[in-house]
Design goal:
Elements (H helix, E strand, L loop, with lengths): L1 E9 L2 E7 L11 E6 L11 H13 L3 E6 L6 H6 L7 E4 L2 E3 L2 H11 L22 H10 L3 H23 L8 E2 L5 E2 L12 H21 L8 H11 L2 H4 L5 H9 L7
Parallel strand pairs: 3-4
Antiparallel strand pairs: 1-2, 2-4, 3-5, 5-6, 7-8
Helix pairs in contact: 1-3, 1-6, 4-5, 4-6, 5-7, 6-9
InterPro entries: CLIC, CLIC_N, Glutathione-S-Trfase_C-like, Glutathione-S-Trfase_C_sf, Glutathione_S-Trfase, Thioredoxin-like_sf
Catalytic activity: chloride(in) = chloride(out)
Pfam families: CLIC-like_N (PF22441), GST_C_2 (PF13410)
Length: about 260
C-alpha cells in the first residue's frame, strides 16, 4: 500500500488516496475518511482518533480517500454532510458514520476475511494494555504546580512500566526467549503479536502524542530501561501504517502549546 497526495478538492481540504491495488476493484466499498487538518489547513492534524481510523483502513488494505478538514473554515458541503460533528467521521457507500468506536467496530464487521484481514486481537487483555497512560499524561502535562510535578511524573512512569510488563510477558501460546536471570520474555513487536491490531491502532496514536509533547515541554522521555516499550515504539515507527498516518511533531507541539503551562 502507498499513500500519496493526489490533489486539493477545496481550498480548505486536502485529499489523499490510499490503495492496496493498482486499479480500483468494482467490488470495493466507497469509503471516505474525514480527519482533522493541521495548522496549514491541509496536512494531518493533532487527533489520535483520526489516526486510529486511518490506521485501521490502511491495515485492511481497502481503497479509501482521506480528506483533511480545516476546523476554522469547514466547507459548507461538510457542514451538511455531518452537521455539528468534528472530525473524524466517515462515509461508507454514502452512509455517514460519526462515532469513532462504532466506526472501528463497523469496519471490522464489514471488511472481513478472506478479502480483508481481521484486526481483532486474539487476546482480550491486549485491548486494555496502556489504557491509563494518556490520562496520566494529561494530568502531568497540564499541571501548573512545581510541587506536584514529581508525583505526576511518577504516575506517568508507573503507567509506562505497567505497559512494559505486559509487552515483556509472553502471550498464551507464544514461544518465549530466555531473558535476564533465565526469565521467559516475549519476542513480539506489538501488543497482540507479530502484527498490528485494533488495540495498537487505539494506543499508538496516543503514545505518539505523549512521547512528543513530554519531550518538548517537560524534558521527559520513556526511560531506556523500559526496553519493551521502546521496542514497541521502534517497531511501530518502522511500519508505514503508523509512520505515514502520524501528524508531524510540530503539529502536536503547537496543539499543546496552549494547554501546557509553566510550572510555578
Amino acid at each position: 500500500m502507498s499513500v500519496g497526495r493526489v490533489g486539493v478538492h477545496h481550498p480548505t481540504r486536502a485529499a489523499v488516496t490510499a490503495m492496496g491495488n493498482n486499479e480500483k476493484d468494482a467490488r470495493e466499498p466507497e469509503i471516505e475518511l474525514f480527519v482533522k487538518a493541521g495548522s496549514d489547513g491541509e496536512s494531518i492534524g493533532n487527533c489520535p482518533f483520526s489516526q486510529r481510523l486511518f490506521m485501521i483502513l490502511w491495515l485492511k488494505g481497502v481503497v479509501f480517500n482521506v480528506t483533511t478538514v480545516d476546523l476554522k473554515r469547514k466547507p459548507p458541503e461538510l457542514q451538511k454532510l455531518a452537521p455539528g460533528t468534528p472530525p473524524p467521521f466517515l462515509t461508507f457507500n454514502g452512509d455517514v458514520r460519526t462515532d469513532v468506536n462504532a466506526i472501528a467496530d463497523f469496519l471490522e464487521a464489514q471488511l472481513t476475511p478472506p478479502r480483508y484481514p481481521s484486526l481483532a486481537p486474539k487476546h482480550e487483555e491486549s485491548n486494555l494494555a496502556g489504557n491509563d497512560i494518556f490520562a496520566k499524561f494529561s494530568a502531568f502535562i497540564k499541571n501548573t504546580k512545581k510541587e506536584a510535578n514529581d508525583k505526576l511524573q511518577a504516575a506517568l512512569l508507573k503507567a509506562f512500566q505497567k505497559l512494559d510488563l505486559y509487552l515483556a510477558e509472553p502471550l498464551r501460546g507464544e514461544t518465549p526467549v530466555q531473558g535476564a536471570g533465565g526469565r521467559p520474555e516475549s519476542q513480539r513487536p506489538f501488543l497482540d503479536g507479530d502484527e498490528l491490531t485494533l488495540a495498537d491502532c487505539n494506543l499508538l496514536p496516543k503514545l505518539h502524542i505523549v512521547t512528543v509533547v513530554t519531550r518538548k515541554y517537560r524534558g521527559w522521555e520513556v526511560p531506556v530501561n523500559l526496553r519493551f516499550v521502546r521496542r514497541y515504539l521502534e517497531a511501530a515507527a518502522s511500519r508505514d501504517e503508523f509512520a505515514h498516518t502520524c501528524p508531524a511533531a510540530r503539529e502536536l507541539e503547537l496543539a499543546y502549546a496552549q494547554v501546557t503551562p509553566e510550572l510555578t
